[in-house]
């Protein structure tokens, strides 16, 4: 197996920087030979970098057309969090707490920046959460509801981080949602918090939206029996 360039991350950024705009408006990388000459690299090293970019979803190869840059799915963010969990650098509780903090900011931006058609879609998802009798359908609607809020925030960086966090937490959140749905009272109360979020977003009032999301998580944690570690019990590895 050929070795990867030790300055691989710098190489990745450099490869992206030499892309050119194609006729159809997409960013296109030069041919392998040109990359070899530009960076004074062996062809095998260039292919290693291209292979990694492709694995991460940053490039798309089209036979006869060339290699194009694209925005990937947030798989690299998901991988980072998954590995951090495996290595015990962070815990599920750390991730959940971060997501709650993050969503309180997201909903404020969504309240200010949303468009009318997005609000209608949010109402549809909320109605599905409240009325669905199918557990999996309700859970999927719940995920899409929060993801749509991230989209409504109109900040691509926010959406990438949200999708990375939520993907890693999906299995855990699934178990907690199933738990909440075992009690009609718990299900009713958690569902009603989604209605309150929609109503708050409609007002375009940032503070009202933040409070609605805060109340949502307070109710959610109460009815899914989430426990929080004491400050002295939380430890992070020393750098």
TrEMBL record:
<dbReference type="Pfam" id="PF00392">
    <property type="entry name" value="GntR"/>
</dbReference>
<dbReference type="Pfam" id="PF07729">
    <property type="entry name" value="FCD"/>
</dbReference>
<keyword id="KW-0804">Transcription</keyword>
<protein>
    <recommendedName>
        <fullName>HTH gntR-type domain-containing protein</fullName>
    </recommendedName>
</protein>
<dbReference type="InterPro" id="IPR008920">
    <property type="entry name" value="TF_FadR/GntR_C"/>
</dbReference>
<dbReference type="InterPro" id="IPR036388">
    <property type="entry name" value="WH-like_DNA-bd_sf"/>
</dbReference>
<dbReference type="InterPro" id="IPR036390">
    <property type="entry name" value="WH_DNA-bd_sf"/>
</dbReference>
<feature type="domain" description="HTH gntR-type">
    <location>
        <begin position="2"/>
        <end position="72"/>
    </location>
</feature>
<dbReference type="InterPro" id="IPR011711">
    <property type="entry name" value="GntR_C"/>
</dbReference>
<keyword id="KW-0238">DNA-binding</keyword>
<keyword id="KW-0805">Transcription regulation</keyword>
<dbReference type="InterPro" id="IPR000524">
    <property type="entry name" value="Tscrpt_reg_HTH_GntR"/>
</dbReference>
């Amino acid at each position: 197996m050929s070795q990867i360039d030790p300055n691989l991350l710098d190489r990745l950024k450099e490869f992206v920087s030499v892309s050119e705009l194609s006729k159809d408006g997409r960013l296109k990388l030069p041919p392998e030979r040109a990359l070899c000459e530009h960076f004074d690299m062996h062809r095998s090293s260039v292919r290693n970098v291209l292979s990694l970019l492709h694995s991460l979803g940053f490039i798309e190869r089209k036979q006869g057309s060339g290699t194009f840059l694209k925005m990937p799915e947030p798989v690299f963010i998901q991988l980072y969090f998954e590995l951090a969990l495996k290595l015990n650098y962070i815990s599920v509780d750390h991730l959940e707490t971060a997501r709650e903090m993050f969503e309180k900011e997201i909903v404020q931006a969504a309240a200010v920046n949303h468009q009318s058609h997005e609000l209608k879609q949010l109402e549809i998802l909320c109605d599905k959460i409240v009325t669905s009798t199918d557990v999996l359908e309700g859970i999927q609607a719940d995920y899409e509801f929060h993801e749509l809020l991230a989209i409504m925030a109109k900040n691509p960086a926010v959406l990438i981080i949200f999708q990375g966090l939520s993907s890693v937490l999906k299995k855990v959140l699934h178990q907690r949602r199933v738990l909440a749905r075992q009690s009609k009272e718990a299900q009713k109360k958690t569902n009603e918090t989604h209605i309150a979020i929609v109503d708050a977003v409609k007002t375009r009032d940032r503070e009202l939206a933040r409070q609605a999301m805060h109340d949502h998580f307070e109710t959610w944690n109460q009815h899914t029996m989430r426990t929080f570690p004491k400050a002295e019990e939380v430890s992070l590895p020393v750098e």
